């Protein structure tokens, strides 16, 4: 699949179109309130990114290996390649389809921001 990937996008409005070859290594499903917080504050540190940095890299063929963040029932998600950081350093908007059902999914229930706050607002 091809997507546009943006460095340090500040919110979801910066994430649309298609350009880079990507491979989704893991789908992480978070609470809907946390997802809306995340999609509007992509540059904050998140544990669900920190805990999955090993899944994100660019290989020798210039394929971006990413995690996909979404919530239950959503028709879209945000691809992330953090480059070892704990925030969405590179990100892309992705409309969901049936192909992602076969990927590795993880429900993430531990929510904290870099300031230790465990609430989305």
Protein architecture, described:
The relative contact order is 0.27. Strand 5 and strand 6 form a beta hairpin. This protein starts with a strand and ends in a 14-residue tail after the last strand. It has helices at residues 32-39, 47-50, and strands spanning 2-3, 6-7, 20-29, 57-58, 64-70, 76-81, 90-95, 105-107. The chain has one domain. Strands 1, 2, 3, 4, 5, 6, 7 and 8 form an eight-stranded mixed β-sheet that branches. The chain is built from two helices and eight strands; from the N terminus they run E-E-E-H-H-E-E-E-E-E. The protein is mainly beta and 121 residues long.
Primary descriptors:
single chain; 121 residues; mainly beta; 8-stranded mixed sheet; 8 strands; globular
Overall mean pLDDT stands at: 79
Uncertain segments are none
Largest sheet: 8 strands, mixed
- Count of the separate structural domains: 1
Total number of beta strands = 8
> What is the helix tally?
2
Helix coverage percent: under 10%
Helix and strand run: EEEHHEEEEE
Shape estimate: globular
% residues in beta strands: 25-35%
Query: C-alpha Rg, in Å?
Result: 13 Å
Q: What structural class results from the helix and strand content?
A: mainly beta
Distance from N terminus to C terminus (CA atoms, Å) equals 34 Å
Quaternary state of the chains: single chain
How does the SSE layout of this entry go?
Elements: E1 2-3, E2 6-7, E3 20-29, H1 32-39, H2 47-50, E4 57-58, E5 64-70, E6 76-81, E7 90-95, E8 105-107
Parallel strand pairs: 3-5, 3-8
Antiparallel strand pairs: 1-3, 2-7, 4-5, 5-6, 6-7
């Amino acid at each position: 699949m091809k997507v546009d990937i943006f460095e340090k996008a500040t919110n979801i409005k910066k994430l649309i179109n298609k350009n880079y070859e990507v491979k989704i290594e893991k789908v992480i499903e978070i609470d809907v309130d946390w997802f809306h917080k995340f999609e509007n504050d992509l540059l904050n540190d998140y544990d669900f990114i920190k805990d999955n940095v090993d899944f994100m890299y660019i290989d020798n063929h210039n394929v971006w290996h990413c995690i996909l963040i979404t919530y239950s029932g959503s028709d879209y998600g945000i691809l992330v390649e953090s480059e070892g950081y704990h925030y969405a350093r590179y990100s892309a908007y992705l409309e969901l389809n049936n192909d992602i059902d076969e990927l590795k999914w993880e429900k993430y229930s531990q929510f904290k921001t870099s300031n230790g706050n465990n609430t989305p607002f």
